[in-house]
User: Fold these one by one.
Assistant:
Number 1:
Amino acid sequence: MLIDAHCHLYHDRFESDRDAVVARARQAGVEVMVLPAIDVPSIEKALVLCDRHAGVHAMSALHPSDTKEATEADFESIATFCDDPRVVAVGESGLDYYWDRSFDADQERSFRFHIRLAMVKDLPLILHTRDKQGREEVYRDTVRILKEEAAGDRRLRGIFHCFGGPAWLADEAIELGFLLGIGGTLTFKNSGVAALVKEIPLEHLVLETDAPFLAPEPHRGQRNEPAYTRLVAERLAEVKGLTLEAIAEATTVTARRLFGI
């Protein structure tokens, strides 16, 4: 059995065939899908899918790119949704330095809010971190803010979503009690993710797709979907020199423990 720890199943790109997408995931062995939020409407859509499909769970958060126009009512809703038993994590939250840098202060305030919320609600925190290629500012800021807010509080744990380095970040993340989310970029020839992941103990890794984004080979450039978690698992098995069964068992146990499912 496999768990897709990060997929946007509510996305409009699944509107025409969502049930078929879920069916293909089941056929591929993906029995659990965890849906990250990007805004309040996405949480509401995710909760509908939790009721419609067994093994689907939701998160609650504002994506960092959606914090520029966020209101106090939005943050209040995020906190309230965390009390819903269908919500198993706070996410995805963090910092995004890839696009618009004009509201960095808003992103940081939101990020700190989500860190505190995750600790108060005792839920894992799912992190979005993105920077321009070759830059590491967002990762250093993320680690610094996590350390400032946690102050040794071991309730803080979660996943660095879409992990792709730098290498030092893996050590920092693990020290902070976070797992590393491994997705389609593992299959990209020149991404460098395989070399990084090879050195990281398996117990610190979980599988994800980020569907409908970042489809793995041989579907790169096309719509991603949860069934492709299996392709990520197969590639991870090759990198680690293990069987697919060993990868599935280890990552499933780790994800279940983190999400409490």
Note: Residues 206 and 251 are 5 Å apart (CA to CA).
Number 2:
Amino acid sequence: MQITVRRTGGYAGSQNVSSIDTSGLEASQRTRIEQLVRDAAASVRPGEEAIGADLMRYEITIRENGTNRSLAWTDDGTFGPVKQLIEEVQQLS
């Protein structure tokens, strides 16, 4: 599974991209990241985005078995599976 996190926004309108391929991770890390992907996908509700001009916005692309899926999320300061997935990918990238 390949996971790409694209971050945009903030005061300066910066952009950052982090990517990992779970096949290169240790088994325990791979299992954890893949579970976070499932949890994040289940927690994102379309049309439910925080509003704020300076908030960070994230687009997460997951490539698995020849298919792509994307999640969009705006960081409103809450911690949950999406934020946890983003942090893990950024650390491992």
Note: The helical segments are 27-43, 81-92.
Number 3:
Amino acid sequence: MDLTAEIVRAVGLAADPAAVTGHGDGALPSAFAVTDLAVASIGVAALAAAALTGKAETVAVDRRLASGWFGFSLRPIGWEMAAAWDPIAGDYRTADGWIRLHTNAPHHRRAAEAVLGAWSDRAGMASAVSAWASAELENAVVAAGGCAAEMRSVAAWAAHPQGQAVAAEPLIHLDPADGGPAPRWAPPADRPLQGVRVLDLTRVLAGPVATRFLAGLGAEVLRIDPPDWDEPGVIPEVTLGKRCARLDLRSSEDRAVFERLLAGADVLVHGYRDGALDGLGYDAHARRRLSPGLIDVSLNAYGWTGPWRSRRGFDSLLQMSSGIADAGMAWKGADKPTPLPVQALDHATGYLMAAAVLAGLRRRRDEGEAVVARMSLARTAKLLVDAGQGGAAPPFAPETPEDLSTGVETTSWGPARRLKPPVDIPGTPLRWPLGARALGSDPPQWDQA
């Protein structure tokens, strides 16, 4: 499978996939073509930006830098990022296989502990898990409001009702919508999203990766989080170029603020589970009523159809469910689940979301039509699995100072440097004037209301 061609087709770009060129040697070691996926997804997002400006015919992706941005791009100077994982999160052997518990959010950890008991160390949790059958424990944790995934093979996932539902879905669901009033923005080619307002209601990784890329093209990105939400292990990585505010959508006062923000937005990017925004009173019709012409792009974990469409999920869980971790174990000859070397499903889906936003903005500008786009981690997993195993490329050479941007980024935690941008769009450099900041650092308002 040509990954770039598949993504170009899914985004609906009238572009030659050969316009994305990857350069450099090496690949991330994996059972799957992770670096090729990085090049393709970043490259097509860049190609969508080039299509918006009409000033570039090709984009060049650095394989090494693209792989780096699929991990962590930030290099703190004199401080350390918080741990990315809760101490209890991880893979555990069950009575008949393996399961992964995702406990990074406090309420998800409480759900797992409601089923398995509270443990201060992994040894105690491992002992509790070992008495359970994988499927029974997965069902029990999910029923308690938590996040868990049994390790399945690729074949088992293909036969599973949810795997079958996802296999029948497009990589990107694209639906036209009323274009509303004419856009008020006419950005220059070097900052193709200047003046475009992006309201970001995403968490953890895929959605924030999308909006980080849009910010690098000049968009005004305003991220909104609930009062009590935090994800310290990734916030310094993903809030680059954004402003971050908090609102409680259970409060009538904050709902009024949110509705004013949405009315002023050109783009909404959200990662709530299927139906969650509807339950808050902001279904698709309400969103479009507040903001006619809105480019509405959303993410779900386990797909948009099938019995698990409303199930909580994260990249590491999808790797277990879809057979990726099992295939990695066989590839490596290991005795435990072997995930991808990076959270590639999150990152790739993030760049698919960014590409959909860019294609939607061009469509609104040129054709007077808006777009509703939906994608899922599960469908991106199928894209990667269908592409087959990665080649025998050598590992990348160690990082050097030349891989980093020259400027120092001022973050909420201290100074840092970043990897250089992974893609070159002629005439449209990626740059982020705002450094990464903590959640809740800014008021909930557009910069120029």
Note: Residues 90-166+313-332 form one domain.
